[in-house]
Amino acid sequence: MPTTVSILETQDVTHNVKRLRVEKPDGFTFQPGQATEVSVDKDGWREEKRPFTFTALPDWDDLEFTIKIYPGHDGVTDQIGKLQAGDRLILDDAWGTITYKGPGVFIAGGAGVTPFIAILRDLEKKGALDGHTLIFSNQRERDIILRSEFESMRGLACVFTTTKEDVEGLEHGKVDRAFLAKHVKDFDQRFYVCGPDAMVDDIKAQLEELGADADGLVFEQ
Ligand SMILES: Cc1cc2nc3c(=O)[nH]c(=O)nc-3n(C[C@H](O)[C@H](O)[C@H](O)COP(=O)(O)OP(=O)(O)OC[C@H]3O[C@@H](n4cnc5c(N)ncnc54)[C@H](O)[C@@H]3O)c2cc1C
Known about the structure:
single chain, 2 domains, six-stranded parallel beta sheet, globular
């Protein structure tokens, strides 16, 4: 059921990603990794619904979204980028995207990391992060969402790679077969892949060739 909610706070996460803390309607529930359709409660925008993932945990007092803004492209995220505390969003019920099914490797491209934010926060809270790996690919170092939070998650092995610059301390290049072979010792574990269309298709194909079973979610066509 569509519900109108107020934005409580907005914050910059990176140069083009915003965190929106949003009021949680009474009784609203979701699972880590789930998303909902969101629109902006302004004339001309109410029917423009786009999927965004809940990045807070279900037991937090408020909801949270972590949203990459495409400024200059006359879409919903450009509008969201202009919103302030007190402005309103229209949300729908939560629906499944990527569900956690057991320890393994999370592979994300850009804003495709958002379902993993909630899943990893949940595992951290339960003290159950040992044996999990996050491989997070971005074009540039400044694009990396929540790097310090991921790095501080006890038990989580983090591998950051940049494709458009070569930065000391980070891997360089796309997540391809050679990259996977270098960073993954065991392909007999679960893989969760989320990012742009081409990336998800490529990585799932490589993983299948390497004998792995992967869940994938496409974020951008
Ligand atoms: C299940 C699911 C969950 C998601 N969760 C999140 C999330 O938590 N956070 C998040 O940031 N994103 C998330 N996304 C992606 C998000 O839904 C899209 O980025 C969003 O719909 C873009 O809306 P828009 O109206 O701004 O752009 P749209 O008009 O819908 O177009 C978006 C696409 O246009 C392309 N584009 C950008 N600029 C231009 C331009 N100038 N000209 C032409 N094309 C351009 C981009 O590549 C982008 O893919 C999720 C997607 C899915 C499927």
